[in-house]
Specification:
about 375 residues; alpha/beta; Rossmann fold; five-stranded parallel sheet; about 15% strand; oxidoreductase; D-isomer_DH_NAD-bd; glyoxylate reductase (NADPH) activity; Glyoxylate reductase/hydroxypyruvate reductase; hydroxypyruvate reductase [NAD(P)H] activity
C-alpha cells in the first residue's frame, strides 16, 4: 500500500515535467518544419538583376520590398561571372534606366521573363526587340503622377517668383538691400497651357486650378466634358493656339517619334515674350539649340526644366550659363513615398510575369 501511494505521488510530480517535455519536443518539430519551409521557399524564389543597392541605385527601404519575392544580384556582381548567374535571372528590374538593357546583356539572360521598368517612360527600351525574345516589358503608371505634377508646379513657381535667385541674395554675405531684379511674374489668374493631358497633365491641371489659373490643354484626344469641367480646362485642337495664349507652357507628353523635337524654333516664336516653358516630360521633346536662342534673344521669358538631353548636360552647355533658366536633375519622382510605390509596382509586375500571369502594367508595342 505504501509503495502504491509512493508511485502515485511520483506520477503526480512527474506529469507536469512530461507535459513540458512533450511541448518542447513539439515546438522543436514545429521550428524545424518552419525552417525547412523557409529554406524551400527561399530556394524557390526567382532571381532578379538590379543596378545596385546604394546611393546610385535602390535605397535599403526600396530593396526591402524586392527581397521577399526575389533573390537579387547587382549588375556589378553579375558581371564578375555572367555565365554562372545569367541562366538563373528571370527578372530585370530597372531603376533610373539601369542596368542598361542592350542586346549584349539580354543575350546573357536565357531565362529572362520580364523587364520591369521603374517609371512611365520606356523610350530607353526597344520593346519590340525585347518582346521578340519572349520577354515582357512593364512600367509603373499612375503612381508617379502626383510627384511629377508637384515638381512641375514647383518649377513654375520657382521660375516665376525667382525663388533660387532670392535665396542666393538672402544668403550672400555682401547683401545689404533687396534688389529690384527679384521682381517676378504673377502665377495666380495667369494662363497655363498643358501639352499632354494624360495622368500627369491632368494632375498639373488640378494644381493650376488651385491657383485660379486659366487652363488650356492640347492632347491627341480630347478629355471628357466632365474631366474638363472638373479643372476648368479648355481644349485646344491646334497646339499653336495654346502656345500663343499661355503665360506658362507645361510639357507632359511621352517621348515618341511624334513628340521628339515637338518644341522648336517655330513653336517658341509663337509664345509670348513674357512666357515660360516648363518641361517635365523628356529632354528630347525640346530642341535645346532652339531653346537657347529663344532665351538669349528674349523670344520667351524663361525656361524651367526637370529634364534635358543628355542628363546631366555637359558642363559647358550654354543652357547652364543662362540666368533665365532653372534646371533640376530629373527628380520628378524623387520622393520616398513615390519611390516605394514604384518599386512595389515593379515587384507586382515582375512576380506576375515570372509566374506566367498577366502583368498588371505590361507595355505593348505600338
Amino acid at each position: 500500500m505504501a509503495c502504491l501511494c509512493y508511485l502515485r505521488c511520483v506520477r503526480k510530480l512527474w506529469a507536469p515535467a512530461q507535459a513540458s517535455q512533450r511541448l518542447k519536443v513539439a515546438n522543436l518539430h514545429r521550428s524545424v518544419h518552419q525552417l525547412q519551409h523557409k529554406k524551400v521557399m527561399a530556394e524557390e524564389k526567382p532571381w532578379a538583376l538590379i543596378s545596385e543597392v546604394g546611393e546610385q541605385g535602390y535605397l535599403e527601404e526600396m530593396a526591402d520590398l524586392i527581397k521577399p519575392h526575389f533573390h537579387i544580384i547587382s549588375h556589378k556582381d553579375f558581371q564578375q561571372n555572367p555565365q554562372l548567374h545569367g541562366p538563373k535571372i528571370q527578372a530585370l528590374l530597372l531603376w533610373n534606366g539601369f542596368p542598361v538593357v542592350e542586346p549584349s546583356l539580354l543575350g546573357l539572360l536565357p531565362s529572362l521573363k520580364v523587364v520591369a521598368n521603374g517609371g512611365v517612360g520606356i523610350d530607353h527600351l526597344d520593346v519590340p526587340y525585347i518582346n521578340s525574345l519572349g520577354v515582357k516589358v512593364t512600367n509603373t503608371p499612375g503612381v508617379v503622377s502626383n510627384a511629377t505634377a508637384d515638381i512641375g508646379m514647383a518649377l513654375l513657381l520657382a521660375s516665376a517668383r525667382k525663388v533660387v535667385e532670392g535665396h542666393q541674395v538672402a544668403v550672400d554675405p555682401k547683401t545689404t538691400h533687396i534688389p529690384q531684379c527679384l521682381m517676378g511674374v504673377e502665377v495666380s489668374e495667369s494662363t497655363l497651357g498643358i501639352i499632354g493631358m494624360g495622368h500627369i497633365g491632368y494632375k498639373i491641371a488640378q494644381r493650376g486650378k488651385g491657383f485660379d489659373m486659366k487652363i488650356l490643354y492640347h492632347n491627341r484626344s480630347r478629355r471628357s466634358v466632365e474631366d474638363e469641367q472638373a479643372v476648368g480646362a479648355t481644349y485646344c485642337e491646334n497646339m499653336d493656339d495654346l502656345l500663343k495664349e499661355s503665360d506658362f507652357v507645361m510639357l507632359a507628353v511621352n517621348l515618341t517619334p511624334e513628340t521628339t523635337g515637338l518644341i522648336s524654333h517655330r513653336q517658341l516664336s509663337l509664345m509670348k515674350p513674357t512666357a515660360t516653358l516648363v518641361n517635365v516630360s523628356r529632354g528630347l521633346v525640346v530642341d535645346q539649340d532652339a531653346l537657347v536662342k529663344a532665351l538669349q534673344s528674349g523670344t520667351i521669358r524663361a525656361a524651367a526644366l526637370d529634364v534635358t538631353y543628355p542628363e546631366p548636360l555637359p558642363r559647358d552647355h550654354p543652357l547652364l550659363g543662362l540666368p533665365n533658366v532653372l534646371i533640376t536633375p530629373h527628380v520628378g519622382t524623387n520622393t520616398l513615398t513615390t519611390s516605394l510605390k514604384m518599386v512595389q509596382q515593379m515587384v507586382d509586375n515582375a512576380v506576375a510575369a515570372v509566374k506566367g500571369l498577366t502583368a498588371p502594367n505590361e507595355v505593348k508595342p505600338k
